[in-house]
């Protein structure tokens, strides 16, 4: 659908894809790399655990050694730093190795300088980072489809915008479900109720399919003909409000015209089920909220 390139001066590939993400952050879709992050954390933990164990054992050994100043290593950094005079630098070498290991995973030079006292903090940071990554939501179907389409536009090279090993990360128009299974989005669309999402996706798709885009000009920012889903959300919001007002009125009218008590009980049960369905479909209500409303 692209009819105008909004980035004529930017090279096709990573530069143009980055420019696209800048103006449309909903397509900021990347791999989670959860497996590699977990593996890195496990290696980090194993390496530091091994160094810690060796360091503690060496500290005990040097503390019980009467040769030179070894018994003072645990009390005075000067003697430990000059342990070469005692002909044995094993404890100092372990400390230096631990510093270098922590330096690789530290965020700043300050952490590297204080590595011995920040061991726990560094491990906590890695765990927190992994937890944050795991909490990122999956991309929306519409945004992922749009990104697949954009990567195969003439402006991006028509066939393959990227030619490296990551060319198939997002899938393709021919195989839309061939994308990596661990995709995440940094800025997901606002979470709407199922009815609004369904209406927005199908309405926009059908408007484009029936050729209505021919009567519209491409956006100056995005370079394509499109429709704002916010307009459809406002319409669905109005439909929801009208429906919420009509259900109680209709139930009262029906119950007024029915005189049989068994029939009234059946109608009340049916409207109760209808309210529950409407709450889930039109209001995105939680289970506790559905139970609270239907039990009232």
List keywords for this structure.
two-stranded antiparallel sheet, 57% helix
Strand order of the largest sheet: 1-2
Helix content: 55-70%
Compute the separation of the termini in Å. Answer: 50 Å
Structural class: mainly alpha
The number of helical segments is 11
Percent strand equals: under 5%
The total beta strand count reads 2
Mean pLDDT: 78
Low-pLDDT regions = 107-119
Q: Gyration radius, to the nearest Å?
A: 31 Å
Largest sheet: 2 strands, antiparallel
What is the string of SSEs from the N terminus onward?
HEHHHHHHEHHHH
Structural account:
This is DUF6594 domain-containing protein. It holds the Pfam family DUF6594. InterPro entries: DUF6594 (IPR046529). Residues 14-296 form the DUF6594 domain. Keywords: Membrane, Transmembrane, Transmembrane helix. The protein has 296 residues and is mainly alpha-helical. Among the domains are: 34-134; 229-295, no CATH class. It has 11 helices and 2 strands, in the order αβααααααβαααα. It has helices spanning 14-23, 34-63, 77-81, 90-105, 109-113, 119-134, 141-150, 194-209, 229-257, 261-282, 287-295; strands spanning 29-31, 183-185. A two-stranded antiparallel ribbon has the order 1-2. It is elongated and about 105 Å long. The two termini are 50 Å apart. The model is unreliable at 107-119 (pLDDT under 50).
